[in-house]
Amino acid sequence: VGAPRSRRVSFLPFSPKMAAAVGPGRGAEELSLLEKSLGLKKGNKYSSQGERKIPVLQTNNGPSLTGLTTIAVHLVKQAKQDHLLGSTAEEKAIVQQWLEYRVTQVDNQSSKEETRIILKDLNSYLEDKVYVTGNNFTLADILLYYGLHHIIADLTVQEKEKYLNVSRWFNHIQHYPGIRQHLSSIVFIKNRLYNAH
User: Fold this and answer.
1) What 3-state class would DSSP assign to 97?
2) Dihedral sign, CA of 69, 173, 114, 91?
3) N or C terminus: fewer CB in 10 A for the chain?
């Protein structure tokens, strides 16, 4: 309510090119961020294929892996952090569901109306959840955060308040250790996020 309408706050080192590092068609950049957050040594080489720039990873000892979620799951297993894929059969299914949602819905939205529907649906879903799967931080949170970063960055203060549960979740994830890295920090009015009910 009297807060500035600034949409992006940056921390050095930062460049506009870095801010644009995630979003549709930016799978290789996201996978590099994921690698770093998992503590993996850089060494994977990513390329992309097709108009939609689907990420491709050439593995050392086998066929190449194609697709954001396929490669992301591979990296999580490579880092021996399988808990990020879910700990129960139900949680694993929910993680998979949201990874699919990320690539089929979030990455394919092409209009303001589609973006509004995604944010409205996600806002409703997150009403009683800390993380996408409920109480545990997973790969679904990480990839949804990266996929939504450019969308949330462009929201006005009023829009962020309209999607309060998404804003609360997003703010929580951006402060999770090692996740945001060089991406711009998105500013939220905290008293609205945590005192709305």
Assistant:
1) helix
2) positive
3) C
